[in-house]
Amino acid sequence: MKPIRIAALVAVGAAVVALAGVGRPDLAGGASDPSGGITVRGTGTVKTTPDQAEFTLGVQSEGATAREALASNSERMRRVLAALFSAGIAKGDVQTQDVSLSQSYSGDGRPNGYSAHNSVAVTIRNLGKAGAVLDAASNAGANDVYGPTLTRSDRSELEAKALRAAVDDARARARVLADAAGVRLGTVTAISETGDGSPMPYFDSALAKESAGAPIEPGKQDIQASVSVTFAIGQ
Questions:
Q1: Could you give the domains of the chain?
Q2: Which of 87, 119, 147, 202 could cross-link with 220 by S-S, CB 3.0 to 4.6 Å?
């Protein structure tokens, strides 16, 4: 009789578990409320014309000794800095980037004096004067010129405008998906910025370094922003 009694107890326990699931779809194998929502990516673009340029100007000098090379380089860089300031560049727009000293070698690998290098990053806030500034720096002794990096002085405000446009674009895309699916678009449940928002030039900028008053064409730029937005599905 003991086996029969144990089987009866098991049956009663199974019935209790089954009754406990009544009214609890999540425990009885029913699906919970949908939580994925609608996730879209939006982009915003602001078209603009650069109004300032960034250059790196350097001085390369040679000398028989390390001291001679460094002294010559320092003197030439002082002349370059004086020329920049005389051309109207503010001291806050000039920043040292590199100061280096290394031994030079001849073609057969023998030591052949020393080479010193000094470079500064320069922001030119008036593009119309960029050619004259570069010409003055070159005449003063700058023999390395790299750039330009064309930017906007109000870049932060333009990036904010592009972000707002990206959110509007994401909302419009989500509405299309919601309409196609026959559901109502709910509130935003998650949002994040994607991409780096780097300006996209319309042209491949070039600098004629060896001509006096090197021409700088600002062209056009797109400042872009991208966002990922998740919307809830409305009830």
A1: 38-49+155-234 (3.30.110.170), 52-151 (3.30.70.2970)
A2: 202
Which residue has 């370094």 as its token pair?
209
How does pLDDT run across 39-97, given as a tens digit for each residue? 999 999 999 999 999 999 999 999 999 999 999 999 999 999 999 999 999 999 999 99
Q: Are 118 and 96 in contact (CB under 8 A)?
A: yes
Is there a contact between 151 and 54 (Cβ–Cβ < 8 Å)?
yes
CB 89 within 8 A of CB 124: yes
Pick the closest to residue 96 from 126, 134, 60, 57 (CA basis).
57
pLDDT tens digits for 52-62? 999 999 999 99
Question: What local confidence, expressed as pLDDT, does residue 36 receive?
Answer: 78
Instruction: Give the model's pLDDT for residue 214.
Output: 66
**Alpha-carbon Rg for the chain in angstroms:** 34
Cβ neighbours around 55 below 10 Å, total: 21
Q: Could you count the other beta carbons within 10 Å of the beta carbon of residue 216?
A: 24
Tell me the torsion sign for CA atoms 27, 29, 33, 36. Answer: positive
Token pair recorded at residue 176: 């299309």
C-beta separation of 119 from 61 below 8 A: no
Nearest alpha-carbon partner for 140 in 203, 67, 217, 58: 58
